[in-house]
Amino acid sequence: PLFADQFWHEKLIEVLNIGVGVGAEVWNPTFDITCPPVGRDKIEKALSKLMGGSEESKKIRQKVKEMAAMAKGAVEEGGSSYNNITALIEDLKACAFEKSKNG
C-alpha cells in the first residue's frame, strides 16, 4: 500500500478479521504528504502481534487460510470467477461475431 489504499485496507482487515491494523486513521486519496504516515513502530507492533503465538493470531491465520482456499476455488474450473470470466469471453465473442456479420 502506498497512500490512498492504506485506510481502506485497514478497514477491510478490521471487518474480515484477517490481519492486524497498523493505525491508518485518515483516508488519503491523493499523494498528500500532510497526511500522517504510519510509523515503523506501529508496523513492528502489528507484525509482532500477528506473528506471535497468541490465540488471536492463530485465529487470524486460520481465517486467512480458509479465505485463500475459497479464492483458489473461485478461480479453478467450475468456480464462480472462472465461470464469470468464461461467460464474459463468450459474450464478447458473440458481440464481435454479430458485428462482423452485420458489417
UniProtKB/TrEMBL annotation:
The keyword Cell inner membrane does not apply. Keywords: Transferase. This is Putative glucosyltransferase. GO terms for molecular function: transferase activity. It comes from Aralia elata.
